[in-house]
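Need tokens for this chain, all 150 residues.
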Amino acid sequence: MRVAKKKAVLPATSSTRSSLPSATAAPGRRRVLLVDDEALLRQRLARALVRHGFEVVSVASVVAACHWLRHGEFDVVVTDVCLHDGTGFDVFAAARDARIELPVLFVGTDPGLPATLATPAGAVRYCCKTLGPVALVGAIGEAYDDRVIC
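Here are the structure tokens for all 150 residues:
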């Protein structure tokens, strides 16, 4: 009797590209790792980012984000505060462990939080998701340009 070998399964990812995303960005394009467990919002934001010249790798979990942080190159990380398998702070910690000078933008649904949050690990940017894709694209550009880093 033959026993089939199980193949390793990578964390589920989606991308705005037609094939699996590569580990490196195209020359001259800013590359964003987008982490949000709300599929519709993640797709909407990814499309808006692509329209504004970003290359996007979008994932739905902390596990998938950690995988891409270890194996990809990014200019900015955008992460939801609350994820089904952890929090954006888990992604923030993984980004901090994997990269130096990598801006991280937190997104959430609380419009009352300030644009810059103080954390024990340093200052991070925050943007309310309900402001829409254009405002989020602007906040991502500011985080990248200002180099608010983890």
